[in-house]
Each structure stands twice: as C-alpha cells, then as structure tokens.
C-alpha cells in the first residue's frame, strides 16, 4: 500500500457528521447579521503581504511571527490572510465604498491562516466570523457591534460568557500613556523577554499583552491607559458603557486589555468563556475601534470598528457545555426498489420527489430489504417506499411511515402529492 498523506499540522477536516452543527452555527451568524442589518463581504483568501505588514509598529505576533507567506510564480510576495479586517478595509478603499451615502455595516466568514504552535483551539487554518462598521464614530455603533457579538453566543445557548471592555483612547491619550509606559518599563527591561525589549521601542503598549511576562510584578503596576484618557476619549468610552447599560449587557472594564493588532484605538473588547475547565484558549472573540486604518490603507479618513470571533472555539464551547443544537439529520424518504425491473420506476419517482422538495435516499449497494430498512433507520428516514415487481405491474407501491409504523398501498402516480402533504 502506498504511504498515506496526512493533513498539514494545525488543520482540521470538517467531517460530514459535524457538518450539521457547522451549518447551524453559520446560519445563526447570518441570521444575527440580518437582524442587525449587516451585509456580507467576501474577499480573497490571499493578499499582497504589504496589506498586513505595513511597516510601522509591526510588533504583533500575527505580523511578526505568524504570517503564512510565500512567493508565487510571478515572484509576488503573497500572504494567506491572517485576519479579516485589513482585507475588508482594502476592499472598502479599492471599491470606493466610502463614496456611498450610508455607512457600511459588513460581515465576513471564512478561513484565516496563522503559523502558530498548533494545539486545541489554536489552529493554522481556522475560521473566523467578523463584522466591520465603516464610517461611524458614534459610541452607539460601538455598542451595537458589541451587542451583536454577545447576541450570537446567547442565541447559541452558551452560558458563562464574559465581556471585557477597555478604551485605548485617541492618539493624544495614547502618546501620554506611551511615555508613561516607557518610563515604567525602562528600568526593568532586562528582566523581560526579548520580544518585550523590542516592544519597548516600537510599541510599548504591546508589553501589556505579553504572554511570557504576564506574571512579572512590573505588569501589575504598569500605568493604565484609562488613567491617561483625555476628556474626549473618556466621554466617548462612558457613552459606550452607558449604551451597554441601556441594553442590559453586563461587562467588566479591564484596564490591561490591549488587543492583538496595532491599529486599534478607543473601544477595545474581548469576549471570554468564564470557565476554568475549558482549557487555555478561552478567548472567543476580540474587537475594537480602528479609526486610522482606512487612511493607512489609502482611503479617506474613515472611522471603523469591528470584531472577529473564532468559529472552532464556538464549537468547542458548545461541546464543553454539552449543548445540543437543534439540527436535523434526516431524510423524508428511503426508496426501496426490489428487483432490477423496478429500478427505472424507482429512479424516476425518486427524481420527481426531489424536484418537488422531498429529500430521498436509496440503496446503491445491491442490498436486500432487511439491510435497506437498517440503512433507512441510520439515515433517519421518515418514510420508506417499497416497489416490488408485483406492485409495479399494478402501478402501485407500499408507503411505510417509519415513525408511526403504519403502511399503505398507493398508486405510484399519487406518491408525489402524498409526500408533499405528509412529509
Ligand atoms: P489569542 O490571544 O488566542 O492568540 P488573538 O488575539 O490572536 O487570540 P484575534 O486576532 O483577536 O485573536 O482573533 C479573534 C478570534 O479568532 C480569537 O478570539 C479566537 O477565537 C480566534 N482565533 C485566533 N487565532 C486562532 C487560531 N490560531 N485558531 C483558532 N482560533 C483562533
Ligand atoms: Mg493569536
């Protein structure tokens, strides 16, 4: 036998037995977007690397270590997209969507790629769902975005969901905070990891997000951005919180929440599973405001806010909380032709049923009636239609209701109408 080829590290096969759950989650995501009036955008899965690596302050793990990039045959430096915001904003600018009268409320869903150390809940190809609101700098739009994210977990039936919010302020506030951070960390920088030493110069805020040094005592006493917010930023943040209060969405303010990407300002938030038994990857969703990004990508000054959530982590959380989704895994009819002569009629009837919205399965392995009934059972069929040679001669068939264990003889010509009204 030839050696088997296995899937690359950090990837997953989504198997048919899991498909119904995936589709259900995706349906909930789309329905939430419909209720909040967000429209779908689909962008390519690969982009020019410059879209993600923009030079200034590339201190995030995503850009500095996790990029899945390569040179294509035309020697273009390409990256598989690690996240959706940059691509969405690129499309917004490229397609001049800023020229439209209304603000853009967009959502996307699909695979993202990061060269990470693969483990449970942390993959190299994973799926994100995210939204972006472009063109509004209104605290109520921040609150709407957060509400949408929270609504998703609620409709899926998840509990122990914790919302953490913070404000990173505007550039004036951030400058003041940056200075304070440099003063705070400089005397002890030798005790921090190599990455933090680089961060001190490039983007000291990122030190607060360091996983290696998280427990160092200097972290707890670090200056908090919230104490450096100017009046305008403070007012904005208070208005976001007031809007969350109005919707009765519970939250915790965490002054150390800084988020993984460099382009955030003002509102930042994360949604976590507040359950110590869940495992290491408890962050389900992250988002925030990025008022400078559109401009950075060559568009006019346009404020933006959004979030992204990991779909695999949603599924893990559902599993952890033993939530059974209301997914159906059934077929209406299992067609049972008995004998070769009956097959063309069975095939014709099956095709007509399908054309009329009835779902039908049949046997293609030459099985006998007993085995076909077992297969019908496994397929969760509601009805079996049995066409024997004698019945066929009379233009008839047996229709067995497998749920109620009743059986009747019908004319084959009546079956479609019967099934439409009885399935
Ligand atoms: P983490 O701190 O867990 O690395 P992050 O800050 O890199 O998260 P974001 O870039 O904010 O994550 O992505 C938003 C969400 O996407 C995360 O909260 C998580 O649910 C999901 N996610 C991120 N990276 C992965 C991954 N490698 N595998 C699976 N899901 C992921
Ligand atoms: Mg990460």
Description:
The protein is of the alpha+beta class and 423 residues long. Among the domains are: 16-157 and 281-320, BirA Bifunctional Protein, domain 2 (2-Layer Sandwich), CATH 3.30.930.10; 331-422, 3-Layer(aba) Sandwich (Rossmann fold). The chain has helices at 16-36, 61-64, 85-94, 139-155, 171-185, 194-202, 217-220, 231-246, 293-296, 311-320, 343-355, 369-378, 389-393, 415-422; strands spanning 39-40, 46-48, 68-71, 77-80, 104-113, 125-134, 161-167, 252-253, 265-273, 283-289, 304-310, 331-337, 360-362, 381-387, 396-401, 406-411. An 8-stranded mixed sheet has the order 1-5-6-11-10-9-7-8, sandwiched between helices. A 5-stranded mixed sheet has the order 13-12-14-15-16, sandwiched between helices. A 3-stranded antiparallel sheet has the order 2-4-3, with no helix packed on it. Strand 3 and strand 4 form a beta hairpin. Helix 1 (16-36) runs antiparallel to helix 4. The mean pLDDT is 94. Adenosine-5'-triphosphate binds next to strand 6, strand 10, strand 11 and helix 10.
